[in-house]
Amino acid sequence: MNDLQLDEAPEAKLRVAAIGDVHAAPSQRGQWRDMFAEISTRADVLCLCGDLTNIGIAAEAEALADDLRACSVPVLAVLGNHDHQSGQPAEVEQVLREAGVKFLENEVCTIKGVGFAGVKGFGGGFDDKMLDAFGEAATKAFAQEAVDEALRLEHAIKMLDTPDIVVMLHYAPIAATVAGEPEAILPFLGSSRFAEAIDRFDNVRAVFHGHAHRGAYAGQTRRGIPVYNVAAPVEKPDGRPYALIEV
Ligand SMILES: [Fe+2]
Ligand SMILES: [Fe+2]
Q1: How far is the CA of 77 from the centre of ligand 2 (A)?
Q2: Angle at Cα 57 formed by Cα 56 and Cα 60, nearest 5°?
Q3: N or C terminus of the chain with fewer C-beta within 10 Å?
Q4: Contact 246, 17 (CB under 8 A)
């Protein structure tokens, strides 16, 4: 079946696999190979939701790129905080771009009529506990980073004119999918500013994020848009480390 036929068939669904926090390392080369091969038989696209590497160096990205050779479906990605650890996120991105990964940080993508928008995101906390820009310059900068990332996400979603949109983040947009993490670190796991941006749109069908390794799999925004924490260690309904949904 080609793209055109898929688009024309009203019952046709795009099968989207998603996983975050693979934390690739050269010493564990091959760790994800079988999973990527399996995903290629079950999904039409793979979303990688950040923390692609452990300390954000090219050698780790190369290990992941090697495993991704087993993946025959399009791969979309956003970076995570670990991918920034060594101050070389561009190098990490470059290695993976050369392996065919498409990064959504500054662009959007449409696959078989479904739009994909994504950013890394940032922290700041949730709901009425969300940090605002008050006090020291460092505190204001922390709050502003989440605002800026949310604006970038909003702009990316606006760039898509597809009837269905999938959003990818590394940080969580809602509190429900970080439930299980220690309360003391919640402000560093995500921000409601991303859910607020997403809820301005009528055509977002699903949101994937990672980062909260001990969080919960599923929740929803205030408007009811499904949110999935696809961090690899989070238990998924079918027992696999990745999520698979239809859009
Ligand atoms: Fe992680
Ligand atoms: Fe993370």
Answers
A1: 14
A2: 95
A3: N
A4: no
Tell me the CA–centroid distance for residue 87 and ligand 1, in Å.
17
pTM: 0.94
Grouping H, G, I as helix, E, B as strand and the rest as coil, residue 118 is strand
Strands 102-103 and 75-78, how do they pair?
parallel
Say if residue 5's pLDDT is above 50: no
What pLDDT, in 10s, does the model give residues 142-166?
999 999 999 999 999 999 999 999 9
Domain ranges of the chain: 2-246
What is the 210 CA–ligand 2 centroid distance (Å)? Answer: 7
For domain 2-246, give the fold: Purple Acid Phosphatase; chain A, domain 2 (3.60.21)
Please tell me the distance between residue 186's alpha carbon and the centre of ligand 2 in angstroms: 12
